[in-house]
Amino acid sequence: MRESDDIEAAMGRAESEGHGHQPDPANTRLLRDALAQFATGVTVVTACAHEDAAEPVGMTVNSFASVSLDPALILWSAARSSFRHAHFTATPTFAVHVLRYDQEALAKRFTKRGEGFDGLSYRLNASGVPLIDDTLARFECVTEARHDGGDHTIIIGRVTRFVKGAGTDPLLFAGGQFGRFLPDQRS
């Protein structure tokens, strides 16, 4: 037997003896727990509930990512189970607000049982999208594309305007909890 055959056989044994789980749609807890090991930033995505009304709608999202610098594209995913899903998959414009470490209360406002915009100060941009000031960053977008992503819709936005706010300390989410990144202070 050649050395490469020995290595391949050893790798095959290691793979077949490896421990792990297969995704189970009937029980997603194990997969959710494994995915929760990856820390993400926290954002609030805002839009108008209807084109002909100024009723604001928002959703806390951690599935935000940069796609391209040229053209300037971002993406985020809207859960199909959310009652806000229909608003975000129909809107032509939206804004993504990147939250600071001290804005956990703002993130909770836009979860399933949160107060949303009730009592919150905001303003509308020229497209009627609600903008929340004083966040770490904000990206105003035109919807570029929507893609089926299983139990989510992947929404790609073309950035038309952005703001980098003060600060550099983002709100993070991992292991089902909000947290904060503590940079290494050694110099």
From TrEMBL:
The keyword Oxidoreductase applies. This is Flavin reductase family protein. Residues 1-27 are annotated as: Disordered. Keywords: Oxidoreductase. Belongs to the non-flavoprotein flavin reductase family. SMART domains: Flavin_Reduct. Residues 35-180 form the Flavin reductase like domain.
